[in-house]
């Protein structure tokens, strides 16, 4: 807004310089002037003065209009935020119900991540993603759209903490990232962290202090895994699960049923290695 008015003022001042007000007390040449010429000069001088007043008045009127438009824009934005927050609250019970349903499907989120065309999963984290039970996204924590992503894992041999949360706060000065803290368990966990360090991966993003994946995405792939989670996977993950299932058909040429996957998942508990092996055979 200030830039617009700066240009408007500059144009008006230029108009004044090109049309200066008549100097008071200027006398006619040696030959003098007729009464008609004097009257004509006075009338032109008056018009110039009136034009100058009109230009300033137009500027004031335009500024008043623009200020009112800006206030309406700000009011609209505030009401949009309030509306978004109200509907987010209404959507929350449905997300929770969906989470309960999806937990009945073994390794659902692993398949959903693998079914996304963005190639979000690193090969080193395939086994640990079989333990991923739930993904939760809470959006619009404030008026700037800050959000938090929470991943819940079942007990596994890679790391001891079962809940990983990453918070992305949008401030006027930039983004503030509170990454998930991962406590590894044993040599396998340490090797996993080393392999996904600075790589495009799910665990790498959760534990990174960057909003986007450290490794640049390939052409045509989404750059920020956080945006993919919020706007695609979280909003409707089931099509990605179906895409992965259909791309990995069984030997008879038909995709394994969800029921078969659920029955296979009930065999968990003997050992983590047996579960990971079973998932690899399925996929």
Give structural attributes.
10 helices; elongated; alpha+beta; disordered N terminus; single chain; four-stranded antiparallel sheet; 283 residues; 53% helix
Helix content: 40-55%
Order of helices and strands: HHHHEEEEHHHHHH
Main β sheet profile: 4 strands, antiparallel
Question: Whole-number average pLDDT?
Answer: 75
Global shape: elongated
> What value does the Rg take, in angstroms?
34 Å
Count the helices. How many? 10
**Helix/strand class:** alpha+beta
Low-confidence stretches: 1-19, 21-31, 213-223, 251-280
Strand numbers in spatial order across the main sheet: 1-2-3-4
| Residues in β-strands, percent | 5-15%
Distance N to C terminus: 57 Å
- Based on DSSP secondary structure assignment, what is the total number of beta strands? 4
Structural overview:
This protein starts with a helix and ends with a helix. The model is unreliable at 1-19, 21-31, 213-223 and 251-280 (pLDDT under 50). Helices cover 53% and strands 10% of the residues. It has helices at 2-18, 35-102, 108-115, 126-129, 186-196, 202-206, 225-233, 238-247, 258-265, 272-282; strands spanning 132-138, 147-153, 163-171, 174-178. It is built from ten helices and four strands, in the order H-H-H-H-E-E-E-E-H-H-H-H-H-H. It is of the alpha+beta class. The radius of gyration is 34 Å and the shape is elongated. It has a four-stranded antiparallel beta sheet.
């Amino acid at each position: 807004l200030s830039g617009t008015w700066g240009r408007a003022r500059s144009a008006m001042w230029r108009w004044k310089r090109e049309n200066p007000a008549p100097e008071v007390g200027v006398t006619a040449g040696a030959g003098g002037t007729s009464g008609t010429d004097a009257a004509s000069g006075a009338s032109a001088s008056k018009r110039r003065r009136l034009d100058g007043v009109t230009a300033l008045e137009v500027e004031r009127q335009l500024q008043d209009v623009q200020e009112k438009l800006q206030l309406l824009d700000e009011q609209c934005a505030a009401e949009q935020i309030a509306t978004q927050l109200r509907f987010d609250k209404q959507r929350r019970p449905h997300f929770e119900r969906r989470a309960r349903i999806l937990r009945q499907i073994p390794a659902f989120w692993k398949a959903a991540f693998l079914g996304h065309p963005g190639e979000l999963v690193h090969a080193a984290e395939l086994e640990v993603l079989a333990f991923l039970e739930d993904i939760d996204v809470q959006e619009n924590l404030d008026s700037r759209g800050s959000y938090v992503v929470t991943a819940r894992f079942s007990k596994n041999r890679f790391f001891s903490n079962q809940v990983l949360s990453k918070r992305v706060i949008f401030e006027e000065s930039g983004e503030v990232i509170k990454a998930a803290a991962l406590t590894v368990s044993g040599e396998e966990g340490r090797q996993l962290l080393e392999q996904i360090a600075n790589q495009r991966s799910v665990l790498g993003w959760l534990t990174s202090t960057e909003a986007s994946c450290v490794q640049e995405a390939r052409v045509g792939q989404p750059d920020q895994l956080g945006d993919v989670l919020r706007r695609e996977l979280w909003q409707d993950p089931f099509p990605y699960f179906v895409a992965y299932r259909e791309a990995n058909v069984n030997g008879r040429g038909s995709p394994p049923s969800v029921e078969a996957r659920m029955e296979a998942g009930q065999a968990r508990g003997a050992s983590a290695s047996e579960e990971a092996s079973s998932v690899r055979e399925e996929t």
